[in-house]
Amino acid sequence: MNNQATVVKHTGSHYLLSPLPEWRPFAAVIRGKLRIEEQKSTNPLAVGDIVEYKEDPAGGYATITGVLPRRNCIIRRATNLSRQSHIIAANIDMAYLVITIDFPEIKQQFIDRFLVTCQAYQVPVTIIINKMDLYTEEQLERVSRYEEIYSAAGYRVVRMSALDPASAEWLREDCKGRVCLFSGQSGVGKSSIIISLDPSLKLKVQEISDAHLQGKHTTTFYEMHRLSSGGFVVDSPGIRGFGLVNVNPLELSNYFPEMLRIESGCRFTPCTHTHEPGCAVKAAVEAGEIAWERYDSYLGMLDEDEKYRK
Ligand code: GDP
Ligand code: ZN
């Protein structure tokens, strides 16, 4: 008989599976070929995938026999110029995108690419601005600008400091009953936040000095942990590049919620919101109703996408 369980870790040689919300991880392997549709990714299974498996009567590794269709997933392009993609996690109830002001510096494009991917694959996102204990007046102004930009776009934005236990309380409530992904550049405090939710978890926090190193080697082994307060978290190692996958340039603006809401007002359909006359999106940017930072990211992504397609 086939049973079902969720992939909670991939070690390279085998997978750890657990039924959820129970938590009893056990080892399993893929034997032979798994039948998966649309296999353009470098990894056949991702953390969060729900699989069917057969137990080994002799008590050895279970065998994964199939994968259930994914409700959603987070994907990135495997390397900058590659057409292959890497699935970061599947069946995610909430993705928390952790950002900081200057520690390390976060590029607007990085945030917006992540948000576009989440819109495209139907993953809800909350933006966490971490390290609130560190900011100067000038940096606090940038925090406020981010809040303004992303609340206007329709996202929830929350301030946090992983060093302040009180600031973890809402997040602990938020994670209950959900599979949550923590994502963001290396050094923003993802592991620290997860540990603040559940200090019994053994995650590695970087030494302060390495947090600012550039071009650091990042592993691609993702892992799901159970929070003692309820819910599951996936810690993703720092993601540097975040190429768009499978987004048609004519549809890109559909993944900017604030553009999607008004683009029916554009004179042309489809409209790329670049050179077309009577464009409602450009008018909204000029009127300050759509943040110019977001429009800038949009144009940057259109440009880059063109490069990939050549
Ligand atoms: P990750 O790479 O995103 O998992 O980041 P880490 O959790 O390893 O944190 C990177 C560095 O930032 C570590 O030295 C943490 O102690 C520090 N850190 C994380 N969150 C905060 C915070 O809210 N405030 C301050 N001051 N430092 C933090
Ligand atoms: Zn337009």
Can you walk me through this structure?
With 310 residues, the protein is α/β, with parallel strands linked by helices. Helix content is 24%, strand content 22%. It contains seven helices and 13 strands. The strands form three sheets. A six-stranded mixed β-sheet has the order 10-9-8-11-13-12, sandwiched between helices. Strands 1-2-3-5-4 form a five-stranded mixed β-barrel. Strand 6 and strand 7 form a beta hairpin. The longest helix has 18 residues. It is globular, with a radius of gyration of 20 Å. The termini are far apart. The relative contact order is 0.13. About 4% of the residues have low confidence. Bound molecules: guanosine-5'-diphosphate (GDP) and zinc ion (ZN). The site of guanosine-5'-diphosphate (GDP) has 19 residues, from helix 4.
Which features would summarize this protein structure in a list?
five-stranded mixed barrel; alpha/beta; 310 residues; binds guanosine-5'-diphosphate; single chain; binds zinc ion; 22% strand
